[in-house]
Amino acid sequence: MTFSLQNKDSRSEARVGLLTTKSGEIETPVFMPVCTKGAPKALTTNNLKDLGFDMVVANAYHLFLKPGHKKIKDFGGLHPFMGWKGSVLSDSGGFQVYSLSPSAKISNDGVSFKSFIDGSVNFISPELSIEIQECLDSDIMMIFDDCPKPDSEYSRILDSINRTRNWAIRSKKARKSKNKLFGIIQGGIYEDLRKTSLEHMLEIDFDGYAIGGLGLGEGQSKTYEITEKICSMLPVDKPRYSMGIGKPEDIVNSVELGVDIFDCVVPTRNARNGTLYTKDGKINIKNSIYNMSDKLIDEDDEQHPCSDYSLGYIRHLYTSKEISALSLMTMNNLYFYKQLIESIKKSIKDGKFIDFKRSFLERYKNESN
């Protein structure tokens, strides 16, 4: 993997880069659709290809539990298993262990937890996490990290960053493949602990760096504050990944601070809950105003994946619980995200990012219509 800067905005830290993995080139900033279990919700990987995406994120924890990492290795890896020729970044599963297994027992060796699928007791160590990801043959792997809630007690976060440092060293030592490995910066809401965790990761030296433990209730202003501090101290020649951050306004603001890579369940999850993203804000398809409406999601875009379907028809499908509604709404939301990213990159190249950001946020409304 290589990473090189192509363009830099003169009025902010926004930048365009070229990330090259064994599976291809990705221009950053980039948004990765979430394929937790090896598939995007309500779509196929061919749909993602048609929408123009070239990198996705999968989850080692989920694929370890089902179907099993060794079975995927026997299949030839996650790429052929998914039918996906683009790049794959795999999350190590550190966050999922705690979020899905409240009774998880953490030690310096690793984490013991009960499977949310069948209740079986499992144990993941940094070494096993890397083994899982190498069996998946991910283009980019993540270290196994300790990810508590960001507003946990100071002593808990201090333990977390020290444990994450130890696990990062072990993760790097366990790597046997040439697949690239990113470090993860923890530290919760505490500026000094974030700085210390960042220094730990830089000392160990990774192919890229991720900001972990954000978007978990610390508040939007705190998210941006932490992101700005961390990006200002990271090397300019390595990619920066803001894990789980992905609301449209968060992407625009985080790009301004210097972030390159994003992922989030928001566009796909909200689609299943009845929310459509548009350039003018969010639409709640459940609202009666859209009953039998002949309007399109975007009247001006003939390339839109839902250009053949009215809002009234999509609402009918959704309220009738037709599966096709989820597919159409998910395609809309991911198309919106792809177009947003493309517009961001163009504005940086044209030297107009700040103007783009201002006009986008003025037009885009956070409240559903």
What gyration radius follows from the Cα positions, in whole Å?
20 Å
Distance between the termini: 43 Å
Tell me the number of structural domains: 2
Biggest β-sheet description: 8 strands, parallel
Please mark out the parts with pLDDT under 50 across 5 or more consecutive residues, or reply none.
none
Roughly what fraction of the amino acids lie in strands? 15-25%
CATH architecture tag of the largest domain: Alpha-Beta Barrel
Strand order, sheet with most strands: 4-14-13-12-11-10-6-5
Summed up, the helix count is 14
Q: Could you tell me the CATH topology label of the largest domain.
A: TIM Barrel
Number of strands: 16
Overall SS class: alpha/beta
Give, in order, the helices and strands. Answer: EEEEHEHHHEHEEEHEHEHEHEHEHEEHHH
The outline comes out as globular
Name of the top-level CATH class of the largest domain: Alpha Beta
> Could you name the CATH homologous superfamily of the largest domain?
Queuine tRNA-ribosyltransferase-like
pLDDT averaged residue by residue: 95
- As a percent range, the share of helical residues equals 40-55%
